[in-house]
Amino acid sequence: MALRVPQAGGPQLFKEGYKNLQGLEEVILRNIAATKEMSEITRTSFGPQGRNKMVVNHLGKLIVTSDAATIIRELEVVHPAAKLLVMASQQQEAEAGDGTNTVLIFGSELLQRAEPLLRMGLHPSEIARGYEAALVAALEGLETLATDSVGNWNNSSEVLKAVRSAVAAKQYGQEAGLSALVAEAVLAAMPAKDASRFNVDNVRVVKVLGGSLAQSRVVHGMVFPTAPVTSVRRAQCVRVAVFACAVDVGQTETKGTVLLHTAGDLLAYTKGEEAQMDAAMAELHEAGVGAIICGSGVGDLAIHCMNRYGMVAVRCPSKFELRRVCRVVGATPLARLGAPTPEEMGYCDELITEEIGGDRVTVVRQCNDDRVRPAFAARVTASPLSTVVLRGATVNALDDAERAIDDGVNVVKALTKDPRLVPGACATEMELARLVHVAADRTPGVAQHAIRAFAHALEVFARTLADNAGVDSTALVAMLIAAHHKEGGKPMGFDVESDHEPCLIDAQAKGILDPMAVKQWALRYATHAALTVLQVDQIVMAKTAGGPKLPKQQAGHWDNDD
After folding, report:
1. Which long-range contacts (CB under 8 A, 24 or more apart) does 342-347 make?
2. How many CB atoms lie within 10 A of CB 170?
3. Per-residue confidence (pLDDT) for residue 9, from 0 to 100
4. Which of 301, 442, 498, 515 is the least crowded, having the fewest Cβ atoms under 10 Å away?
């Protein structure tokens, strides 16, 4: 027996406080466990029957929602592997506007399916090659599953079939009314010639507390959730000046002292400010300005002068809203108080105040009629911006309805690039699982095990929908596999209205359709995120930066002689 000679410790590579993890147990399996825990948070919120999450963020704000994008944005995830999935999901939100929960669930399921293969002895590179081959097969199969497309963006029924499924996933039971609102708003903001130039920023949402969701409506134009600050509340065919600065008497940057000797000095001091503001408002009035939109405060003296000249003033504190209203009226925001040039001036057909519930809102719109307009207003066309005015009983209900509308508008944007639609209700995922299984049977070598694991991972969506609906997920998956293996079968999906026992429906016949582009990006991002996590074999973490920690406070009072 050879004598074992103890070896001296190796050279210290890193500073004190570094953590160095490596190997299958310490790195890969721990990363898989972290991503599984991350997906379990959002998995129960998947689909129309998904449950809400109550999240209190670091600012103490309460958020109640089932939207995965909102949940992961408010959670402060620190684990590096889980953060990779979160970043992939956020990229899905930026690219397609929907399918964020799909990326989280599928990416985590791919990693969980890889765990038994790793324990069997397969190398992570072999699993990665199999997953890449399976992704190619799934994307090729997805191209053959398109059953419908959006052909005419000026037809509300075409838009409705595109956004209904996306809205139903967030607001199940209210999808008919909200989808109609989205369709009306999109048709008003859709470019006449090229639909691919549709801008999601042209569909805005204003939330007015009170009433019910059924009382929501679409307003063609821009809506401010406040009333004008002046006594004049209505103007038609007016020139508009937009100011990014405050409409008020100028203030000095430093504090100063004014010494007044007599009452005449005091009267002259106040009259000087009045004369200065009156001259500024008279200059605007002589230039033909009838409405002022201000991005900052409006002083009392300025309001008095505006009322005297019959001008309307609206305060818009958000710089983003100020940019949008400039786009509607065709104006340039001014950083100084003075009369704008014709090139800087905007034009508005109507600026009116409406009462919604107990709140007053201001509507700015351009009308598509034969009104007599000034020559410079030729550049201003009909309002490219439409606003959805939402009503609801609570702030959280309004926020959730706003997220559903945003998802519907983003789906329309994705469909303007690729108008193809595929069956929903997990019919597409189950058919892709069958196609990937066929590809695995044709593949020699150990890569077929990873391809087959990819196919099994696609079944997680049906299992999740069944679990959230309270039915037997194993029975549902068995029924879907049998239905999709029939020759000439229909695209069968899961009926979320099933009672206790799972039922299947023809997704295409029921009008449950999803954009193909959303599925494509979700498959890509989830697979690439899973491969990135899978191919990590070592984690090196530096010591957290920061100053010395405060000493622990002694229990009790410092003067106690215990």
Report:
1. 342/376, 343/376, 344/241, 345/239, 345/240, 345/241, 345/287, 345/289, 345/376, 346/239, 346/240, 346/241, 346/242, 346/380, 347/238, 347/239, 347/240, 347/373, 347/374, 347/376, 347/377, 347/380
2. 25
3. 46
4. 442
User: In this structure, are residues 494 and 480 in contact, taking their beta carbons and an 8 Å threshold?
Assistant: yes
Angstrom distance (rounded) from CA 516 to CA 532: 25
Residues 6+ apart with CB under 8 A from 268: none
Side-chain half-sphere of 468: how many Cα atoms within 13 Å? 24
Q: Is 352 exposed, middle or buried (0-12, 13-18, 19+ CB in 10 A)?
A: middle
Of 48, 138, 150, 136, whose CA–CA distance to 421 is shortest?
Answer: 150
Contact 213, 392 (CB under 8 A): yes
Alpha-carbon distance of 370 to 382, in angstroms, equals 12
Which pLDDT score, from 0 to 100, does residue 134 have? 95
CA pair distance 539, 79, nearest whole angstrom: 11
* pLDDT at 201 (0 to 100): 87
Name residues of the chain where pLDDT drops below 70.
1-12, 250-254, 368-383, 487-488, 545-562
